Amino acid sequence: MERWLRLLVLYTNIFSIYSVDNDLFDTQNKTNQRVNIHELINSLDVRNLYQDEPPTKEETFDFIVVGSGSAGAVVANRLSENPNWNVLLLEVGDVATPFTEIPVISAVFQYTKLDWGYTAEREEGYCWGCPNRRMHWPRGRALGGTTALNYMIHVRGNPLDYDRWEAMGNPGWGYKDVLPYFKKLEDAHIKVYPMLVHPKSYGYLRLKSKNPFQWPLFYPRYFTDPGNDDIKTFIAAIREIQRINRQPAFQRFRSELYTKPIPGCEQHAFNSDAYWECALRTITPTLHHQVATCKMGPSGDPEAVVDNRLKVHGIRRLRVVDTSIIPLPISAHVNIPAVMVGEKASDIIKEDWTMRP
Ligand SMILES: Cc1cc2nc3c(=O)[nH]c(=O)nc-3n(C[C@H](O)[C@H](O)[C@H](O)COP(=O)(O)OP(=O)(O)OC[C@H]3O[C@@H](n4cnc5c(N)ncnc54)[C@H](O)[C@@H]3O)c2cc1C
């Protein structure tokens, strides 16, 4: 049987993917970018990329993969390598414009139809400078998922991250186990810059209702750890950057601290710890590496949703394969780990199916 992968783009007119220009951008926020990007998009003949017919009632599938994101796209691809399996990949979003592959302009695609457009709930203690004090929560809604929005920073993480996963009761997820998957997909450069990678504050999601079409409520709870250690760690990072900035290599370029106070923080002495705490709580930068909402762990762990084979505890024939299974924040950006999860999950599924009676 011929190898094939059926792709069904739901809810969208697949023949006019790039022609719905008027709602591509939130006009309030992105008017300037809209004109140029649209001109570029319209100059390309990229329609009709996917013309598969929707499956008929009679067709059956061995696997249905929901979501073609960093992990899901890999799973669909790897499972479709078996010529005897029919794989259906369901994706609610569109084909992303090729311009999403230019990292320097990726932020432009937030607030567009390539983004689910979530907003976190209003909470105290952070995002004082956000509109209505609510944080935008970008998440890709496209073929490729959040890779349509991300900055393409490629980081593997620290071996200890994965050894911790294993120590939490997840055999097969130690560094020695996941390393071959990283090696399989690595050919990129690595960029590093200071981030709070192991925050002590943690947030949660809550379902609004039983209706699956209603978006969940997001409670990030940034900077809420009782000892205020997250803020202190961030300020230590700022001091370290200032130290690096004073070195001759940077001074050759006359690099200097930007001294205009952050609006809302003028009451604090500039460059004091109190000033930087106010700045962090006002701007609250994040790189959107949320994990662990469907945490992987043994059945005895009350927070665990899936086991180490990524099967949902207590439910048959359902697995979760994406960043939500990552049990702890890692010392890295999470896209490459998500791809690794997709690769490893594909091997797990193939193994389980090959061993079926
Ligand atoms: C703005 C931004 C920048 C980032 N930059 C980086 C970076 O530079 N480097 C890095 O390593 N990480 C980065 N990340 C994080 C990383 O890109 C994501 O964590 C990762 O892509 C998530 O992969 P995933 O497989 O878990 O889910 P996603 O890639 O989000 O895929 C989920 C897919 O499922 C689809 N879907 C959801 N519900 C349904 C449904 N009901 N039916 C059908 N389809 C559905 C969605 O449309 C989406 O396509 C960034 C994240 C953001 C938001």
From TrEMBL:
Transmembrane segments: none annotated. Residues 1-19 form the signal peptide. One of its GO terms (molecular function) is oxidoreductase activity, acting on CH-OH group of donors. Keywords: Signal. Residues 199-342 form the Glucose-methanol-choline oxidoreductase C-terminal domain. Residues 61-192 form the Glucose-methanol-choline oxidoreductase N-terminal domain. The keyword Metal-binding does not apply. The keyword Signal applies. PANTHER family: GLUCOSE-METHANOL-CHOLINE GMC OXIDOREDUCTASE, RE36204P-RELATED. Belongs to the GMC oxidoreductase family. This is Glucose dehydrogenase. It comes from Rhynchophorus ferrugineus (Red palm weevil).
